[in-house]
Amino acid sequence: MTTDDDAINRLYQLPLAEFTAARNTLAKGGDASIKTLQKPSLPAWAVNQLYWQRRKVFDRLVAAAGRVRTAHGRMLVGKAADVAEAEAAHAAAVKESVDSIRQLLGAAGELDTPATIVAVQETLQALPGDEPPGRLTRPLKPKGFEALAGLVPASGLRAFKVLEKPPAKPAAARSAKSVPTAAEVAAEKRAAEARRREAAELDAALRDAKRAEREATMALDRARTKRDDAEREHADLTKKLDALGDRLRSLRDEAIHAERDAKKATAERERVEFRRAALEHAE
Known about the structure:
Layout lengths: L4 H9 L5 H9 L14 H12 L1 H22 L6 H25 L6 H13 L27 H11 L6 H8 L3 H101 L1
C-alpha cells in the first residue's frame, strides 16, 4: 500500500517534536517506505514551515533566485544583464525569509540560536534545492559557479572559454581594451553597493542573533532557577504530605479502637440494664 503525497506533506507540517511518532503511526498503514523518511533538522524544518505557512514569501525568494541565475547565465554568454540588481533583490528576499522564519520559530517555541539562523540563511540562499519544497531534512549549502553551468548552452560555453584566453593583441589594443566603459563602472558600483548592503544586513542579523542568544540564555537561567525552586518546594510538600499521611493513618487507627471500645461499653451497659430490669421484675 502506497501512502499519498498529501499524508506525507501533512507529516512535514507538524511540530518538529511530533514528527517521529506521526511517521511511525503513518507507517502502520502498510507503506514500509514511510519508515525511511528522516526527521528534519531544526533549520530544515524551519525552512519547510516557510513553504507551508508563508508561501508568498517563499515564492518571492525562489523567483529572486531564478532571476540571479538568469542574470549570471546571460552574462556568461556575453549578453547584457544587471547582475548587481538581481543579487540585491535576492539578498532582500533572503532577509525577508529569515525574518519570517524567526517568527515561525518563536510561535513554535523553538529557539532561533545563531547556529540555527546561519544554517537557515545558507539554506535559503541555496534554494531551490533538489528535494521537494517543504520536505527538506537537512540544511543546504549555497551553490557555487558550477550551478550556473546548466544555464549556459554549449555554444555559449565555448565562446566564454575563448574569451578567457584570447589571442595576443598589440599593446595599444590591450591598453584600449583594459579601460572600463561607463556601463561597466556603473555596474561595478551597483555590485559594490549591493555587497555593502548585504554586509550591513548580515552584521545586523549577527547582532540580532547575539542579542537573541543572550536573551534566550537569560531566559533559560530564569527557567532553571524556577524549576529548582519548584523541585525544592515539591520535595518539602512531599515530606509534609508523607507526615500528614502517617498522622492520618494513626488517627484512623485510634478511631477504629475508640469505636470498638464504645461498642463494648454500650454492650456492657445494655447487659447491666437487662439484669437490673430482671431483678426488679423478680421482686
